[in-house]
Write a structure and sequence with these properties.
This protein has a seven-stranded mixed β-sheet with strand order 4-3-2-1-5-6-9. The longest helix has 25 residues. The protein is built from seven helices and nine strands. It is of the alpha/beta class. The protein has a single domain, classed as Ribonuclease H-like superfamily/Ribonuclease H (Nucleotidyltransferase, domain 5), CATH 3.30.420.10.
Length: 222
């Protein structure tokens, strides 16, 4: 029996949902810790990494970048170095499903508009959200808890929720506008760790075929 691929959870934050909005944070939960990229819009960010790592008690590396282009270029370099051709499975929560999703479609648009090559070449991907919604019961008091934070609280120990400074993900928009980059990074760390925890639960209780693994490799390179 072959060993399962090591899951790498990822999540992004943005300034909104329109095609012209920008990516503000990209985070990955890798086997040894968390890697977070933050763009500051040209503003200064003071000791984001130190504050985030102390708050999480997890190995976290945070880099700040003056623009979205610089950040996505750095993300592409990280993906090429750490994920491409490695024995990993990229996972997200509502990152991209057969009938929707957010993170990957948003990233494709921003990479295309900034003319940066798509980095996820030879990287298999699976979405955790359908596994949670279709294969687990997350109903509490008659209401289904299908979003990331709520599903995590139902199925996992809930510890990572304490890291999140936001009650709602929408607060990430205001945090970027106000230059609260540490809060942004902490929120992203909480989300990638929650995604990884849910992915590991699914790994323990769901069959391999239910992960619906897909390739993110484009049909033509630049």
């Amino acid at each position: 029996m072959t060993d399962p691929l090591e899951q790498v959870a990822f999540d992004i934050e943005t300034t909104g949902f329109d095609a012209a909005d920008t990516v503000t944070v990209v985070g990955f939960a890798v086997p040894m810790g968390v890697r977070v990229f933050v763009q500051t819009g040209g503003r200064s960010a003071v000791d984001v990494e130190g504050v985030v790592e102390e708050a999480t008690e997890t190995l976290v590396k945070v880099s700040t970048h003056a623009s979205e282009l610089e950040m996505l270029t750095a993300v592409a370099g990280f993906v090429e170095e750490r994920l491409c051709d490695a024995d990993v499975l990229l996972v997200a929560y509502n990152g991209e499903r057969w009938n929707g999703g957010f993170d990957l479609p948003f990233l494709r648009t921003r990479f295309a508009q900034l003319d940066v090559a798509w980095p996820f070449v030879e990287v298999p991907y699976a979405d955790v959200m359908p596994l949670v919604s279709d294969r687990f019961n997350t109903t509490v008091n008659g209401d289904e808890h299908g979003d990331l934070a709520a599903a995590y609280d139902v199925l996992c120990d809930g510890a990572y929720g304490d890291l999140d400074p936001f009650a709602e993900s929408a607060e990430a928009v205001a945090a970027f506008e106000e230059g609260r980059f540490t809060d942004l990074a902490l929120h992203n760390v909480a989300d990638v760790l929650r995604t990884r925890a849910l992915g590991r639960v699914a790994e323990r209780y769901c069959g391999k075929s239910e992960f619906q693994v897909k390739s993110l490799t484009p049909t033509r390179s630049m």
